[in-house]
């Protein structure tokens, strides 16, 4: 962003200092200046004379958080919704935008698709400011927390179902972050596995029985010394590592 002002003073130096004061610059600030009008003394101390004018220009580097905030507010404003307010929390490497208001349901969209799209686009804007990773979170109330809890319960429920019935289940398409939540939940249930199928917007999670566990169960029937399968009920398995489809960098991973 470029800012410029014209300072006025009895001398060029005074005009320069006046312009710097208007812009809030100090001795360490970087700026360009141009003498617009040199000072002219009055004739005989009574007639004519002009004050000096100096134009100072500052080319400020855009801040990722500020660029993201402006973009998000412009988009939400263009949606012409009632009573929408955006609260912002910023730090050096991330920014969180919480949207509240009467028509916030339109911003969430079907299964959070509109909210996810807003976060994705806002992240693109922020990360193109200086081409370094800047994490953006767009939320409304505690919607994302509720969604995450719902997915965790769903993944665990279908994992137990897969172990019990031996039948796999395909879920609806999800973004990488939501798929990772499902994988994390499923892979804590012994005897169940999950994987992803499909491409792009159609990519989804499939939950099914773990073939290795089923083979172990069959092979262990004649060996009474094997105490690993005393019960047919699947056990919790918190040590299994979940699949990470998000890249560990937020809703859609790092955006380049």
Annotation keywords:
7 helices; single chain; Ribosomal Protein S8, Chain: A, domain 1; 256 residues; 3 domains; 3-stranded antiparallel β-sheet; disordered C terminus; GMP Synthetase, Chain A, domain 3
Please count the beta strands (DSSP E, at least 2 residues each). Answer: 9
List low-pLDDT spans: 219-235, 252-256
Largest sheet: 3 strands, antiparallel
What would CATH call the class of the largest domain?
Alpha Beta
Q: Determine the CATH superfamily of the largest domain.
A: K homology (KH) domain
| Cα gyration radius (Å) | 30 Å
Distance between the termini: 23 Å
Average pLDDT metric: 82
Q: What percentage of residues falls in helices of 4 or more residues?
A: 25-40%
**Integer count of domains:** 3
Class computed from helices, strands and strand pairing: alpha+beta
In the CATH hierarchy, the third-tier topology of the largest domain is known as GMP Synthetase, Chain A, domain 3
Q: What pattern of helices and strands is seen along the backbone?
A: EHEEHEEHHEHEHEEH
Question: How many H/I helical runs?
Answer: 7
Strand order in the largest sheet: 1-3-2
CATH architecture label name of the largest domain: 2-Layer Sandwich
Please tell me what the overall shape is. Answer: rod-shaped
Strand content: 15-25%
Compact summary:
By secondary structure, the protein is an alpha+beta fold. It has three domains: 2-59; 64-141, K homology (KH) domain (GMP Synthetase, Chain A, domain 3), CATH 3.30.300.20; 148-219, R3H-like domain (Ribosomal Protein S8, Chain: A, domain 1, 2-Layer Sandwich). Helix content is 35%, strand content 22%.
